[in-house]
Design a protein that fits this description.
Shape: globular
Order of helices and strands: HEEHHHEEHEEEEHEH
Radius of gyration: 22 Å
Number of strands: 9
Largest sheet: 3 strands, antiparallel
Structural class: alpha+beta
Helix content: 40-55%
Strand content: 15-25%
Strand order of the largest sheet: 2-4-3
Protein backbone atom coordinates (compact mmCIF):
# COMPACT_ATOMS: atom_id res chain seq x y z
CA UNK A 1 0.00 0.00 0.00
CA UNK A 2 1.28 3.51 -0.73
CA UNK A 3 2.57 5.51 2.20
CA UNK A 4 0.41 8.36 3.46
CA UNK A 5 1.41 11.79 2.12
CA UNK A 6 2.16 13.14 5.59
CA UNK A 7 4.69 10.36 6.24
CA UNK A 8 6.44 11.05 2.92
CA UNK A 9 6.45 14.77 3.63
CA UNK A 10 7.80 14.29 7.18
CA UNK A 11 10.44 11.84 5.96
CA UNK A 12 11.57 14.26 3.22
CA UNK A 13 11.73 17.15 5.71
CA UNK A 14 13.73 15.03 8.16
CA UNK A 15 16.10 13.91 5.41
CA UNK A 16 16.64 17.50 4.24
CA UNK A 17 17.21 18.62 7.82
CA UNK A 18 19.83 15.90 8.39
CA UNK A 19 21.61 16.82 5.16
CA UNK A 20 21.55 20.50 6.11
CA UNK A 21 22.96 19.76 9.57
CA UNK A 22 25.69 17.58 8.07
CA UNK A 23 26.65 20.25 5.53
CA UNK A 24 26.58 22.96 8.19
CA UNK A 25 28.92 20.96 10.44
CA UNK A 26 31.18 20.13 7.52
CA UNK A 27 31.40 23.78 6.48
CA UNK A 28 32.14 24.98 10.00
CA UNK A 29 34.97 22.51 10.42
CA UNK A 30 36.52 22.06 7.01
CA UNK A 31 35.85 25.10 4.90
CA UNK A 32 35.59 28.10 7.20
CA UNK A 33 37.90 31.04 6.56
CA UNK A 34 38.39 33.79 9.12
CA UNK A 35 37.54 37.12 7.48
CA UNK A 36 39.65 39.87 9.02
CA UNK A 37 38.39 42.89 7.07
CA UNK A 38 34.63 42.73 7.67
CA UNK A 39 34.63 45.90 9.78
CA UNK A 40 36.76 48.07 7.53
CA UNK A 41 36.27 49.92 4.27
CA UNK A 42 38.57 51.67 1.83
CA UNK A 43 37.44 54.17 -0.78
CA UNK A 44 39.23 56.29 -3.31
CA UNK A 45 38.56 59.96 -2.66
CA UNK A 46 39.16 63.15 -4.59
CA UNK A 47 39.57 65.46 -1.61
CA UNK A 48 40.54 65.45 2.05
CA UNK A 49 37.48 67.41 3.22
CA UNK A 50 35.06 66.88 6.09
CA UNK A 51 32.08 66.70 3.71
CA UNK A 52 33.70 64.02 1.53
CA UNK A 53 34.88 62.09 4.61
CA UNK A 54 31.36 62.12 6.15
CA UNK A 55 29.87 60.88 2.88
CA UNK A 56 32.41 58.03 2.66
CA UNK A 57 31.99 57.08 6.34
CA UNK A 58 28.23 56.75 5.71
CA UNK A 59 28.89 54.72 2.57
CA UNK A 60 31.40 52.57 4.48
CA UNK A 61 28.85 51.86 7.21
CA UNK A 62 26.45 50.52 4.54
CA UNK A 63 29.32 48.55 3.00
CA UNK A 64 30.20 46.90 6.34
CA UNK A 65 26.54 46.06 7.06
CA UNK A 66 26.19 44.52 3.59
CA UNK A 67 29.29 42.36 4.19
CA UNK A 68 27.96 41.18 7.55
CA UNK A 69 24.46 40.42 6.29
CA UNK A 70 25.41 39.16 2.79
CA UNK A 71 23.77 42.12 1.10
CA UNK A 72 20.40 41.52 2.77
CA UNK A 73 17.66 43.90 1.60
CA UNK A 74 16.44 44.13 5.21
CA UNK A 75 19.61 46.00 6.15
CA UNK A 76 19.13 48.64 3.48
CA UNK A 77 15.46 49.27 4.29
CA UNK A 78 15.38 48.94 8.08
CA UNK A 79 14.14 52.30 9.41
CA UNK A 80 15.91 51.90 12.76
CA UNK A 81 19.21 51.34 10.96
CA UNK A 82 18.59 54.45 8.88
CA UNK A 83 18.12 56.40 12.14
CA UNK A 84 21.50 55.13 13.41
CA UNK A 85 23.30 56.97 10.61
CA UNK A 86 23.05 60.13 12.69
CA UNK A 87 25.24 58.44 15.35
CA UNK A 88 27.98 56.96 13.18
CA UNK A 89 30.67 58.24 15.55
CA UNK A 90 29.45 55.49 17.92
CA UNK A 91 30.34 52.86 15.31
CA UNK A 92 33.51 54.35 13.82
CA UNK A 93 36.83 53.62 15.49
CA UNK A 94 38.92 55.79 13.21
CA UNK A 95 40.04 56.68 9.73
CA UNK A 96 43.22 57.45 7.88
CA UNK A 97 44.29 58.64 4.47
CA UNK A 98 46.68 56.73 2.27
CA UNK A 99 48.37 57.98 -0.88
CA UNK A 100 49.07 55.27 -3.48
CA UNK A 101 50.72 56.71 -6.55
CA UNK A 102 48.61 59.67 -7.55
CA UNK A 103 45.45 58.31 -5.87
CA UNK A 104 44.17 59.18 -2.38
CA UNK A 105 42.31 56.56 -0.33
CA UNK A 106 40.28 56.89 2.86
CA UNK A 107 40.60 53.85 5.16
CA UNK A 108 37.83 53.53 7.75
CA UNK A 109 37.74 51.14 10.70
CA UNK A 110 34.40 50.39 12.38
CA UNK A 111 33.74 48.91 15.82
CA UNK A 112 32.88 45.24 15.51
CA UNK A 113 31.42 45.13 19.02
CA UNK A 114 29.16 48.17 18.54
CA UNK A 115 27.89 47.02 15.13
CA UNK A 116 27.23 43.47 16.36
CA UNK A 117 25.33 44.87 19.36
CA UNK A 118 23.29 47.09 17.03
CA UNK A 119 22.35 44.19 14.73
CA UNK A 120 21.54 42.00 17.72
CA UNK A 121 19.37 44.72 19.28
CA UNK A 122 17.48 45.18 15.99
CA UNK A 123 17.21 41.39 15.53
CA UNK A 124 18.94 41.46 12.15
CA UNK A 125 20.75 38.19 11.41
CA UNK A 126 24.38 38.29 10.34
CA UNK A 127 27.22 35.83 9.76
CA UNK A 128 30.23 35.54 12.03
CA UNK A 129 33.77 36.27 10.88
CA UNK A 130 34.19 32.59 9.93
CA UNK A 131 32.80 32.30 6.42
CA UNK A 132 32.50 29.41 3.98
CA UNK A 133 34.97 29.49 1.11
CA UNK A 134 33.31 29.52 -2.30
CA UNK A 135 35.43 27.92 -5.01
CA UNK A 136 34.98 28.90 -8.66
CA UNK A 137 36.37 26.88 -11.51
CA UNK A 138 35.26 28.49 -14.74
CA UNK A 139 35.85 26.92 -18.13
CA UNK A 140 34.56 28.42 -21.37
CA UNK A 141 34.41 26.49 -24.63
CA UNK A 142 32.89 28.45 -27.49
CA UNK A 143 32.62 26.99 -30.98
CA UNK A 144 34.96 29.41 -32.77
CA UNK A 145 37.42 30.08 -29.95
CA UNK A 146 40.14 28.22 -28.10
CA UNK A 147 38.89 26.93 -24.74
CA UNK A 148 39.76 29.27 -21.89
CA UNK A 149 39.97 28.86 -18.14
CA UNK A 150 39.54 31.60 -15.58
CA UNK A 151 41.83 30.98 -12.66
CA UNK A 152 43.05 32.98 -9.70
CA UNK A 153 46.19 34.35 -11.31
CA UNK A 154 45.16 35.41 -14.82
CA UNK A 155 43.91 38.94 -14.03
CA UNK A 156 40.89 38.82 -16.37
CA UNK A 157 37.93 41.17 -15.93
CA UNK A 158 35.70 38.26 -14.90
CA UNK A 159 38.14 37.15 -12.19
CA UNK A 160 38.39 40.72 -10.87
CA UNK A 161 34.57 40.97 -10.91
CA UNK A 162 34.18 37.71 -8.95
CA UNK A 163 36.75 38.83 -6.39
CA UNK A 164 35.15 42.28 -5.98
CA UNK A 165 31.70 40.72 -5.62
CA UNK A 166 33.07 38.41 -2.94
CA UNK A 167 34.51 41.39 -1.10
CA UNK A 168 31.14 43.20 -1.27
CA UNK A 169 29.37 40.18 0.19
CA UNK A 170 32.07 39.39 2.72
CA UNK A 171 32.62 35.94 1.22
CA UNK A 172 36.01 34.49 0.37
CA UNK A 173 35.69 33.54 -3.29
CA UNK A 174 38.59 31.33 -4.31
CA UNK A 175 39.73 30.62 -7.84
CA UNK A 176 42.12 27.67 -8.16
CA UNK A 177 45.64 27.99 -9.44
CA UNK A 178 46.15 25.38 -12.16
CA UNK A 179 49.14 23.22 -12.82
CA UNK A 180 50.15 21.93 -16.25
CA UNK A 181 47.92 18.82 -16.03
CA UNK A 182 44.86 20.96 -15.19
CA UNK A 183 45.50 23.32 -18.10
CA UNK A 184 45.65 20.41 -20.55
CA UNK A 185 42.03 19.44 -19.75
CA UNK A 186 39.33 20.40 -22.20
CA UNK A 187 36.18 22.03 -20.72
CA UNK A 188 34.02 19.00 -21.57
CA UNK A 189 36.34 16.84 -19.44
CA UNK A 190 35.54 18.89 -16.33
CA UNK A 191 32.55 17.69 -14.35
Amino acid sequence: APLPMTFKHNFNCLLKLNIAIFLFCLCKVAFAIEMSDLFSAQFETQADTAKERTKLINHGFDFVLAKLCLGSAEVATNSKLIDERTNLKNYTLGYSYEKVGDKLFLNIQYSDKAIKNLLHRLEIPYLSEKRPAVVFWLAIDEANYKPSYWVGDNGSKMVRYIESRGEELGLPFVLPLFDYADLSLRPEQIE
